[in-house]
Amino acid sequence: MEKPLELSRYCVPFTPFSKPLEESLICLVTTAAVRAKNDTPFNVEGDNTFRRIDASLTSRDLAYDDAHYDHACVDRDLNCVFPIDRLSSLAREGRIAGMTPEHFSMGFSQALRELRETTVPQLARAVSGARPDAVLLTGG
Amino acid sequence: MQGIPTVLITVEPEESAQARPPRALCPRGFVAGHSLGRPNDEALQKWIAMDALALLREPARPGEVIRRDYT
């Protein structure tokens, strides 16, 4: 049997979590190329930058720059890929403590080496600075 | 830098599994652009988000993508 392609030759990056969700701040991180409407657009052909998204914004304040996934859902409701309003609602209900002050989005990129060596370390530092208890990742 | 607990919602479980995620939920049948389901279906989207977050509290199955039905 053919060995499946392994994109990761490293250990599974597992960090334990034991806090109640009701006491936890959640940070959203996506690769769906989401940003504030007044922020610089992503280059849909390939972009190794990331955007910070203020958690006080709602989905109506956000836009996306994409040419790679189906837009039928996100054109009506960005929560389909970036559930910022839903996390806000879960926080009001007390099911999570709240959100970090910022969330983050990457864009479309196939430049894996640059992502791994430059973008992701920068993003990880930025996410760490937001002091999340946990991160919810979405791909779009 | 300290590790950060993460959980992924993926609609491409085979591809995601290659990256060996620590925790991952795949809403079966959903596709790229629709990871959390139907537009403006707040209950469904919150259900999927909470199921994903709940994986943080469940026994560790690192590298596995948990598939669930939401239809």
Notes on the structure:
The complex is a heterodimer of chains A (140) and B (71). By secondary structure, chain A is of the alpha/beta class. Helices cover 19% and strands 21% of the residues of chain A. Chain A is globular, with a radius of gyration of 16 Å. Chain B is an alpha/beta fold and 71 residues long. Helix content of chain B is 27%, strand content 17%. Chain B has a 3-stranded parallel sheet. The longest helix of chain B is centred in the C-terminal third of the chain and has 13 residues, at 42-54. Chain B is globular and about 35 Å long. Chain A binds chain B through residues 4-8, 10, 12-18, 21, 26, 29, 68-74, 76-77, 79-81, 83, 85-87, 89-90, 95-96, 124-125, 127-128, 132-140, and chain B through 1-12, 16, 18-22, 31-40, 42, 45-46, 49-50, 52-54, 56-57, 60, 62-63.
Order of helices and strands of chain A: EEEEHEEHE
- List the strand order in the largest sheet of chain B: 1-2-3
Question: Helix count of chain B?
Answer: 2
Major β-sheet profile of chain B: 3 strands, parallel
**Strand tally of chain B, please?**
3
Secondary-structure-based class of chain A equals alpha/beta
Strand content of chain A: 15-25%
- What portion of residues of chain A is helical? 10-25%
Q: Provide the gyration radius of chain B in Å.
A: 12 Å
Counted by DSSP, the helix tally of chain A is 2
Low-confidence stretches of chain A: 2-6
What level of helicity do the residues of chain B show? 25-40%
Rg calculated over all Cα atoms of chain A? 16 Å
The number of E-state strands of chain A comes to 7
Task: Give the termini distance of chain B in whole angstroms.
Answer: 40 Å
Arithmetic mean pLDDT of chain B = 93
Number of domains of chain B: 1
Name the helix and strand elements of chain B from N-terminus to C-terminus, one letter apiece: EHEHE
